[in-house]
Structure formats: structure tokens, C-alpha cells
TrEMBL record:
Keyword Nucleotide-binding: no
GO terms, molecular function: rRNA binding; structural constituent of ribosome
Lineage of origin: Bacteria, Thermotogati, Thermotogota, Thermotogae, Kosmotogales
Gene3D superfamilies in UniProt: 6.10.160.10, Ribosomal protein L20
GO cellular component, one term: ribonucleoprotein complex
Name of the coding gene: rplT
Pfam families: Ribosomal_L20 (PF00453)
Role noted for this protein: Binds directly to 23S ribosomal RNA and is necessary for the in vitro assembly process of the 50S ribosomal subunit. It is not involved in the protein synthesizing functions of that subunit.
Name the UniProt record assigns to this protein: Large ribosomal subunit protein bL20
Species name: Kosmotoga pacifica
Similarity annotation: Belongs to the bacterial ribosomal protein bL20 family.
């Protein structure tokens, strides 16, 4: 007697169709298209995770630049001055300070200004 594979193929199809539930039109109903777009969505998700890191870094730099200009420096001068002063603080924290605790951010700006004037 031969073994039929209906159960396994149905299980396989159910996996993809369940994952493709929210897709529009035939993409959520037809197995072949659902499988293709399931794979494609995984690719988008992978690149999206990388893109999110870029987007946040861009946002932090914009916020730091805005705070630095309010305190009388450019972004590049601030970062260069902090590097010369040997201050190790990441952009995420600097952006947070620029937004929520401007007085503490100003102290970093003063440190950077001091380091820049020593070089000149």
C-alpha cells in the first residue's frame, strides 16, 4: 500500500496561508502567491531592521544639531570638541539630553568649546 502525502502538503499550505492572512486580494488566498509574498515580506523585514537603525541615528543627529545651534555651536564642531576633550558619550544620549535636559546638554557644549579653544 502506498503512502499519500495529502496531510503534509495541506499542513504546509496552511502555514503560508495563515501567515499571509492580512495580505490584500489573491495574496492571502492563493497558495503560490502567498508563499512568494511571505518570503518577500521576510526580506522587507530584514532590511527594515537595518533601516530603523539608520533612521534613528539620523533623528539623533538632527536633534543634537538643533540643540548645539541653540547653544552656539554646529553639530560637527560639538562632536569634534567632545572627541578632543576625551568625552565618550553616544549620540542617543546626547539627543536625549538636548530634548529633555538642555542645561546638562549645555555643559557638554561648554566642554566642547573649551577643547576647541585649546587647540586653536
Amino acid at each position: 500500500m502506498r503512502v499519500k502525502g495529502g496531510i503534509n502538503s495541506r499542513k504546509k499550505k496552511r502555514k503560508y496561508l495563515k501567515a499571509a492572512k492580512g495580505y490584500r486580494g489573491a495574496l492571502s488566498r492563493r497558495y503560490r502567491l502567498a508563499k512568494q509574498y511571505y518570503i518577500r515580506s521576510g526580506v522587507f523585514a530584514y532590511f527594515g531592521r537595518k533601516q530603523k537603525k539608520r533612521d534613528f541615528r539620523k533623528l539623533w543627529i538632527t536633534r543634537i544639531n538643533a540643540g548645539a545651534r541653540m547653544a552656539g555651536l554646529k553639530y560637527s564642531e560639538l562632536i569634534h570638541g567632545l572627541k578632543l576633550a576625551g568625552v565618550s558619550v553616544n549620540r542617543k544620549i546626547l539627543a536625549e539630553l538636548a530634548m529633555n535636559d538642555f542645561e546638562a546638554f549645555k555643559e557638554y557644549v561648554e566642554i566642547a568649546k573649551g577643547a576647541l579653544t585649546k587647540v586653536e
